[in-house]
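Hi P.,

Sorry for the delay on this. The queue was packed all week, but I finally got your sequence through. Input first:
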Amino acid sequence: TATTTTVTSNGNPTTLNGRPTFTATITGGAGPTAGTVTFYDGTSVLGTGTVASGHTATFRPASGAAFWGGTHNITATFGGTGAFMASTSAVFVETVTQGTVTIALTAKTVGNSGQNYTFAAVLTPSQTNATFAPNKSVVNFYDGATLIGSGQPQTFTSGQGGYGLWTATMATSSLGPGTHTITATYTDINY
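Then the structure:
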């Protein structure tokens, strides 16, 4: 018997480290009550579910699964059984909303023109799971609207003499006389 598979989500959009349950429904004839459905994010396998008496199979990502911010093209493939043919669903677009990062900027605030200044940006991400650490891009430092440098966020654990905070630093000696408004930004796929 030919089948048709559809896939839905109980949480769309979801947040970083959100764990929506994907449900595949298989129809055709009396509908299968056995078999396996494989759930995909694009071409990557998310996981599998077993078809039950309601002609459905479900899958829920594990906590910390690398389900990045942005859109995901979810499909479900029913593998077929002796009486029911295999089928693949149309794409279901799942959206994972980006988290936020709070930045605390520290620096020496008084000095002389041409003197070396080191700026440190301490990042506090809204998602604390290590999978979504803010280390996939750089922190950009600005003097007003002018980019003056960037730094890669790093973390130092207590065993390394740190506090487990994500920090990016940038040094410059190019600041001239006068007042400077220094800001820092961080953006990546998740934030």
